[in-house]
Design a protein that fits this description.
Shape of chain A: globular
Largest interface: A-B, 18 and 19 residues
Radius of gyration of chain A: 26 Å
Number of domains of chain A: 3
Oligomer: homodimer
Distance between the termini of chain A: 52 Å
Number of helices of chain A: 25
Helix content of chain A: 40-55%
Largest sheet of chain A: 11 strands, antiparallel
Chain lengths: 702, 702
């Protein structure tokens, strides 16, 4: 709730208010952000869900290997396995298109809070307020995009119910793959090292943005030319030392630091444990199925990986929440805030504010099981999820094109259905059955009014379990949604067809649909009320603490700074903040994910580190650790030194730093980047990527 | 092969040659060892396979919880679970006898090399030499024990084929349990933390030795009185700081530092991987069986634990051998040694010495599979092992009592058979079957002359696997050795009964017996030759390096010293050498092995550390880490400061220090002890064990 000295993902609008000189910056503020002129910000891009940065005048972008992963995989063929072997386009015409990749650059922002909030009437219910805010945002975005064809307009809520900014993004759609290290380097350590320090992952890759010959954004075309950014980041091969100041620019996704103790308690006691329990069970089942055959292992691999990642993140968060005792800490702060409110008649109206927020969370608790089951049913059964998407699609297509959710607009409809069909590849009926049985068994405990109707027919019978299993078996035996042709067929049908469906899964979803509508209404009412209460709360807090507040991360461009810094995660354990090539040797077992290419091992052995050597460590630094304030979405963020030179590439956080989503901790908040010296040394020694090193103006290699 | 500065488990005979002042000792050498008078050595005891030390004038012994484990378990009843709750004898008459526990004190040593080696004749074969050495040792021990009734005489080989010392031990047999912390403290961290730093285990306990009222050694008798040691160790509750000098006295078991590269290669490439592979497979099988029921889990628990311990030890060793590149290092040293030999006609006879040793190991390699299968058959099947012991027993009992192996002498025979019967408790026939099938399948690949005869009947048949399985099934269906009465019956029968046995397992062992005889002959020939070669090699090495050599650990009393010292096991990871109570809080999950008693958590929370606080760490130190040279058998060794005051209790090594058996490494050799401040703080605050604290003369507690 309080904003600490070094905590902060500062929106660009805050940069003018920061004393960066005092913090140790050697470059001027307006070299970082300058609405009147070009600045470092012009070198920062969003690459799908990640961050990237221009590192040459010819549109070359540095981002993470895991951010370019889809492009590398798609570029691979049985003859050329770029995922396994890495990829280096020897000449520019060998660069490979990466369809589906979009690069955006923040061009401007504007406060639109009044335009949005003025539409709210006193007489409206919470649910109606929520609806009207969504509607206003939609109108503002549509109008802005009409004014700037080719740009994307997005309204971001900075403080809920209070501040809304309209961001304008230049969108560049011809993105190509330029360079990627082998998977054994780019993903070195895999799931085992994920969220862990010390790290030795070369999680970097290069892409390039192209535009039409006249400089305008364009879809892929062989005639396109490299985009010339207004500014690109200069690389320093000098690297960094422990305690050096560093700063990051990037697009952090989501944090919840301004929420109250009731929210954190809800997350800690209810939501995260429930998801963790479900995923634990699902991973165990998929693991044992994966033992049966390589085919089944492949089918389940990405779902196991994704869920394991979430589990590790949650375990880290739960550990952090317990260690920081965050709920108690927030409660203590809220007690002081209440005393402040009570002491001043000015806040008369806000007497019960915290109690009101708590009351909403109490209500959310009451609905939790209902919310959880409805939300995780589609995540548990791919066929159920497909039925749901098809149903939504049919409903949306009844509306005029510009009123539909964007995935169902005519422009994007085929892509949406193609993506749906792609998901069929991972469908395994026994897994579907087991997952559905598991989660529907939990649904039998719901109160009558919230329980799926189908279950009511037998939950009081003598053998409810058998009947539930029979229901699920029958659902999967009488659906055809696992066939591509059927999915495509359904995607063209009107809502009436769903009502008279003979497909058991479609039919099952149609039966559940009223419950989903009910859930949406409840959620709207809750978020409408919370938006308003949080806005009130912020006013009180600002008056109480007499300081500016930094909005929670929300996917918009932010600055954060800190230092290359060691940490002590446990008693008697101390981690140095710079790892080296020797750690790669130590971890290498020859087995994935520790299967370093033997040529790389030879190069490490030869120890020809040249100008990329860290003298004191007598090796090339591989990864760096720093206490800046980051979260998901900061993947691919450039790490700059005090002079604004690029020295690293952010890609992960330490285990204990998963707590960042709820609170920043000087002890535990540590982010992880690839040291640029490793990137350069690897490109030079392993890949002989001289074309790119020259393009980035790296002084003459050996 | 070389003896490094700080490397060294010095035998007491070496103490007079050490410059301890220069090393930083503040007490005089003759306070540690003085054959003319009492010294610190008189406070050191061997407690079964562990070390212990007297810590009061009344025979009170401090040793590890894991060393007293058997006594604590045996003392426990369903009403009083001392393993779970801990034990504190409020008064002396409440101390509980620990049958099976023996305490020995080293009283003197004498060089008997000449008496042994003079019996060897030039004309003897290697096997005969090996036999004659064993025989001479037996004679010397028997004669010495006759001279000193009640003492134990043991000849220890210091340098193989070269130096033999006769040690005389005073044996004390009335040992009682005085104090033990709860298992959740004494085994905190269990298998997970085993061989690991940072550590937070309170691995300590107290026992007391009693003697007859006239002071002579005696078996348990309620009339016995506490033994009054010549000397006891004084405890310092001041504790230690990083980089303080410490020394240990104890009984390290076995090291192999003087062996050649061919031995290490044999261990690294052949023996350890083979054992690891077998145990991995066996643990997996037992783990999956253990899921079936709690009963099966208990049956397999101790075997799983033992094998997991070995596996972790081997994994640590294999890692260390690879990191140190020990085989290559030894080969390089041997190359220099060969050049030295060639350079001097004095060593004419030793020209091919290293090649001869290598030739033996080549031969051992050829026999490895045979040796491995015969050695691990009894370790894989308890019933097979019982059959083997019964067969050996019958043969030994044909001999005069004083010529038998000691386990089969009349004095110890009942105990041996009782122990055999105890092993029946863990027999689970499906496990026996699976293990036997697994190892006998490997036996089918042996050459004809070494293969168990029974297998020959079908290995060339069309379905050898089925027939092998049928054989094992039949072995276990037609044996009665899982019945206690049958084991006792067989234990009284003469060798002739075995020849006409109708018990399938006995019969199977009798069939294999000639192979075991063959293996023993081969081993005798190898060890006879190696003994002689190693003796020659030592002469050359001493001349080459012009320095004294420290014999490998062999279970005799040793001094080692070093410093409280941090270490860096991996890139970017640094471990502080003193852990604290806060680490207990961090690790505690509430689930075994991290299930700290809630009362202890409360005490840590209250933070009333009194005079046991480490000011800089703001906590009570729990465990300490130091770079002395230890190995198995050093468990329970007292850790002394430079003034000879007891400051800790040794109980384990760090993972990387498992390499100690082959080489000492300044980087990785670290041993782990309980800090005496934790012992005292815990006894005072948790157990209120004032009687013992007073007895140890700890200044007045709170």
């Amino acid at each position: 709730m309080t904003s600490h000295a070094r905590e902060g993902m500062f929106p660009i609008s805050e940069i003018p208010n920061l004393d960066l000189k005092k913090a140790g910056f050697e470059i001027e503020k307006d070299e970082i952000y300058n609405p009147e002129n070009t600045s470092l910000l012009d070198a920062i891009v969003k690459v799908n869900g990640c961050t990237g940065s221009f590192v040459s005048s010819q549109g070359l972008i540095l981002t993470n290997h895991h951010c370019a992963y889809g492009a590398i995989r798609r570029a691979s063929t049985p003859e050329h396995d770029y995922l396994a072997d890495g990829f280096y386009a020897l000449t520019r015409d060998k660069e490979i298109p990466a369809p589906g990749f979009r690069v955006r650059i923040t061009r401007s922002y504007e406060d639109v809070s009044d335009r949005i909030l003025s539409a709210i009437k006193e007489s409206m219910s919470w649910g109606e307020r929520s609806e009207v805010i969504k509607k206003q945002i939609n109108i503002i975005e549509t109008q802005a995009e009409k004014k700037h064809p080719g740009w994307r307009a997005e309204v971001s809520e900075m403080f809920s119910g209070k501040t809304y900014l309209l961001f304008m993004y230049e969108m560049l759609n011809d993105v190509r793959l330029v360079y990627a290290p082998p998977r054994s380097v780019g993903e070195f350590g895999g799931e085992i090292d994920n969220w862990m320090w010390p790290r030795h992952t070369g999680d970097f890759s290069f892409m390039r943005v192209y535009v039409a010959p006249d400089g305008s954004p364009a879809e892929y075309d062989p005639e396109n030319v490299p985009y010339e950014p207004k500014r690109f980041a200069r690389i320093s091969s000098q690297g960094v030392q422990q305690e050096d100041l560093v700063f990051l620019l990037g697009y952090p996704g989501r944090t919840y630091r301004h929420r109250t103790s009731s929210f954190v308690a809800y997350e800690q006691e209810l939501r995260m444990p429930a998801v963790a329990e479900l995923y634990d069970w699902q991973i165990d089942l998929m693991d044992s199925l994966s033992m049966e055959s390589r085919e089944l292992a492949l089918k389940h691999a990405s779902r196991i990986k994704g869920r394991a990642n979430t589990m590790k993140n949650y375990r880290g968060k739960l550990l952090g929440l317990e260690r920081l005792d965050l709920v108690e800490k927030k409660r203590a702060e809220e007690k002081l805030l209440k005393a402040f409110i009570a002491s001043d008649p000015q806040w008369q109206e806000d007497q019960d504010l915290l109690e009101k927020i708590e009351a909403i969370y109490n209500e959310k608790q009451d609905y939790f099981q209902f919310d959880f089951i409805l939300s995780y049913l589609p995540r548990s059964s791919t066929l159920f999820s497909i039925a749901r998407t098809l149903h939504t699609a049919a409903q949306e297509r009844q509306k005029p094109d510009d009123e539909r959710k964007s995935a169902y607009t005519d422009r994007r409809y085929n892509e949406t259905i193609d993506n749906l069909v792609l998901r069929l590849k991972t469908v395994h009926l026994p897994t579907e059955k087991a997952f559905l049985k598991h989660i529907l068994t939990q649904a039998t405990d719901l109160p009558d009014s919230l329980r799926p109707k189908r279950l009511n027919t037998f939950i009081h019978s003598p053998h409810p379990k058998q009947q539930l299993h029979a229901l699920v078996d029958s659902l999967l035996e009488h659906t055809e949604l696992h066939q591509e042709s059927k999915v495509r067929e359904w995607s063209a049908l009107p809502p009436t067809a769903f009502k008279s469906s003979r497909d058991a899964m479609i039919d099952f979803y149609v039966d559940l649909y009223p419950l989903y509508e009910k859930l949406e209404k409840i959620e709207n009412a809750h978020s409408g009320a919370l938006d308003a209460y949080h806005a009130q709360l912020l006013d009180v807090q600002m008056a109480y603490q007499d300081q500016r507040f930094i909005p929670d991360a929300n996917g918009t461009l932010r600055l954060t700074y800190g230092h290359i810094r060691s940490y002590s995660p446990r008693d008697a354990v101390h981690y140095h903040p710079i790892s080296t090539l020797q750690g790669i040797m130590e971890k290498t077992t020859g087995l994935e994910p520790f299967d370093t290419p033997s040529r790389l091992l030879d190069l490490i052995d030869i120890a020809d580190y040249g100008r990329f050597e860290h003298k004191a460590l007598n090796s090339v630094p591989v990864c760096i650790l720093y206490d800046t304030d980051t979260t998901g979405g900061n993947s691919g963020s450039p790490v700059f030194n005090a002079r604004g030179e690029l020295v690293g590439l952010n890609f992960d956080r330490a285990f204990e730093a998963t707590i960042n989503d709820y609170a920043w901790s000087a002890d535990y908040s540590r982010s992880i980047g690839v040291d640029v010296r490793y990137i350069l040394w690897f490109m030079q020694s392993y890949s002989h990527a001289h074309r790119l090193l020259q393009e980035m103006e790296i002084p003459g290699g050996s």
